[in-house]
Amino acid sequence: MCQLLGMNCNVPTDICFSFAGFRARGGLTDHHRDGWGIAFFEGAGARVFLDPSPSADSPVAELVKHYPIRSLNVIAHIRKATQGEVRLENTHPFQRELWGRYWIFAHNGNLKNFAPTLTGRFQPVGTTDSELAFCYLLDRLAQRFPQGTRDIAELHAELHAELRALAIEIGSHGEFNFLLSDGNQLFAHCSSRLCYIVRKAPFPVAHLADEDLTVDFNEVTTPLDRVAVIATTPLTDNECWTQIAPGNLLAFRDGEPVALRDTTTVAQDYPRGTVTNA
Questions:
Q1: Is residue 277 assigned to a domain?
Q2: What's the domain range around 232?
Q3: Strands of 256-259's sheet, edge to edge?
């Protein structure tokens, strides 16, 4: 099972603390050794780092761990290959342009007998089911919203609903946990396992589950900061993480989740200090 990591904030924030623990799962505290990647949105641009080597041993990961890139939206992925060879072109997250914005996507799961027809606007470069699903998803969005979604304030509910319908359609072929962002918001879909935490004042002192590292967020934040971190399993062992209920899609904006209006029970809390290993 691959590992996902996402961050959405109301002010540009670095992900160094969370990434330190997340990186260890790529060959040190877990068996995901088939590559890793991370993408940071910066204005209209996206800074993407990819490496088909295990993240625990990667010099590129070591650089990112100590590189305080500040971003409103971040998506990272550690791969355990199910479809497609261990190659750079098969390494998540994937990037495409739609409506004049970059979109970043990472998937955890395995889609079987998934062979959709594509229009040709978006084509996979590698051979993973994940990149194929991403291309199909964007293909369908481009058809559904030919005018684009430049006015997010007017169309975010319709976009959210369409993404949820597509997640159900694609997810009928297997596990389809994913993170998706256009730099304005971050979508998180739970098929089997995905959780999140929102950190805001008064900030906690957090301790990583995969590395003996502690940080007091009160020392590195302001009272107005708000940060949502999304992960396959909790990254810390002394905080309460919220499990997204399978089948639900959350949109994170300004450091907090926004569910569809017709969504009922969307989450349940992990007990404090509980860490579930993949």
A1: no
A2: 3-269
A3: 94-98, 101-108, 177-181, 186-190, 248-253, 256-259
What total of structural domains would you count in the chain?
Answer: 1
pLDDT more than 70, % of the chain:
90
CA distance 170 to 164: 10
* Residue type at 247 in one-letter notation: G
Question: What is the number of residues in the chain?
Answer: 278
Q: Which of 2, 9, 190, 195 is catalytic?
A: 2
Q: Which residues have a Cβ under 8 Å from the Cβ of 120 and sit 6 or more positions away?
A: none
Residue 278 within any structural domain of the chain: no
Residues of the chain with pLDDT > 90, as a percent, come to 81
Query: Could you read off the pLDDT of 210-223 as tens digits, one per residue?
Result: 999 999 999 999 99
Confirm whether 45 is domain-assigned: yes
Residue 112: is it exposed, middle or buried by C-beta count within 10 angstroms (0-12/13-18/19+)?
exposed
pTM of the model: 0.91
Two tokens, residue 244: 């997204």
66 or 206, which is more confident?
206
Q: Tokens representing 125?
A: 């470069």
The CATH code of the domain that includes 39 is 3.60.20.10
- Residue 2 falls in the annotated catalytic set: yes
Which residue from 74, 62, 17, 8 is spatially nearest to 205, judged by alpha carbons? Answer: 17
Q: Please tell me what DSSP assigns to residue 63.
A: H
Q: Is residue 105 part of a domain?
A: yes
**What is the chain's mean pLDDT, rounded?**
90
